[in-house]
Structures are given as C-alpha cells and as structure tokens.
Amino acid sequence: MIKKTEGGVTAAKGFAAAAAAAHIKYENRTDMALIYSEAPCVGAGTFTSNVVKAAPVLWDKEKVENAPYVQAVVVNSGIANACTGQQGRRYCEETAQAAAQALRIPEDAVLLGSTGVIGMQLPIDRIKAGVAALAQKKAATQEAGHEAAQAIMTTDTHPKESAYTFEVGGVQAVIGGMSKGSGMIHPNMCTMLGFV
C-alpha cells in the first residue's frame, strides 16, 4: 500500500538538497537548487519531444543515456539556457565542472536544469558561485528539500513537492520528488521540470 508522507526530494535516505540566491534574474529570493545523492544512482529521464530543446535537456539526455551513474542535479531559475547555441552548451559544461569539483564527483554524474527566460545567456560566474554555495549548504533535511523546491519556481504560486512510502519485498521504501510548472506541460513537456 502506498502512503503519502511528509517531505519531498530529501525524503528518501541518502538524498540531500540545498537552495541558494545566485541573483541570476531575481533579487531577494533563491534561484538555484541542488539535489545530491550520497551514493551513485541509476539515472532515467523523460525529455520533451519538442523540436527545440534547451542546452540542459540535451546535456541530461546524453548523460542519462551514456554516463555510468548520476549523483547530482543542479537547477537554476530565471534564465532557461534555451536557444543559446554553443555558448549555452559550454555553460552546461562549466556548470557541471563546477559542481563536480565542489561535490568531488565526476562531471558526467551531474545533471542540469534551467527554467525562465528563453534566449538569454546565463551569468556563468553567478552560476558557478551559486554551485559552490549549494555544495556547502546541502543537507538531508525536509527543510532543505522544501527550500530547493521553492528555488526552482518561476510563475508557480507555490512549491510542488511530495513523498510516499510503500513496501517492496517486505522492506519499506521511500520516494520523494519536486517539480515546477504552472500549466506548463505544453508543448510536449517543454517547460516542465520534475525530479524524483
């Protein structure tokens, strides 16, 4: 039997999260989030089938298909890193490198998410500073998970997070997640972000 429980992305054992204010677009609020797993994880993803795909979507699709495991997700809100060409791709690489160094994990174990204005370049120095702050702040608490869910909001009216417990082979399991989006599943999940 599946039962709803308290929490979000940090509900499952071994997962930590953090939020930081990198001043990407917004002032006086957090705009970057980290989800971190103590242990390497098998990665899976559902990606938009839209013809236009943002740089982080292409990055994540490649990593999910080819990397041996995933251990962190770095998400920013405010600028989507969409329709940004080769520079947007380079900024994915630089963000993953910064996270890999700060978290002491391989670069290809880092997934990325961006949401916000299309066609603008990320302020990469602020992103890198945000990554460093996230790595220092990460915690396996319900509050840290809630703060991460708040940090990825754009037009959302409230953070979206959930957690459930269920039994598998006589052992209690926990699954948790967070998402952002306010009627944003069209076209083809193009602007929806969700992390489980």
General description of the model:
With 196 residues, the chain is α+β, with helices and mostly antiparallel strands. 43% of the residues are buried. Helix 2 (85-103) runs parallel beside helix 3 (124-137). It has helices at residues 55-66, 85-103, 124-137, 142-151, and strands spanning 3-5, 15-20, 32-41, 70-79, 110-117, 160-168, 171-180, 193-195. The strands form two sheets. Strands 1-6-7-8 form a four-stranded antiparallel beta sheet, covered by helices on one side. A four-stranded mixed beta sheet has the order 2-3-4-5. The chain is globular and about 50 Å long. A hairpin with a 2-residue loop joins strand 6 (160-168) and strand 7 (171-180).
Briefly, what is this?
By secondary structure, this protein is α+β, with helices and mostly antiparallel strands. It is 28% helix and 30% strand.
Entry keywords:
4 helices, alpha+beta, 4-stranded antiparallel beta sheet
In terms of DSSP E residues, the strand content is 25-35%
Helix content: 25-40%
Total beta strands: 8
Shape type: globular
Overall structural class, as computed from helix and strand content, comes to: alpha+beta
SSE string: EEEHEHEHHEEE
**Count of alpha/pi helices:** 4
Largest sheet: 4 strands, antiparallel
Alpha carbon gyration radius: 16 Å
Strand order of the largest sheet: 1-6-7-8
What's the overall average pLDDT, rounded? 94
| Stretches with pLDDT under 50, minimum 5 residues | none
Q: State the end-to-end CA separation.
A: 19 Å
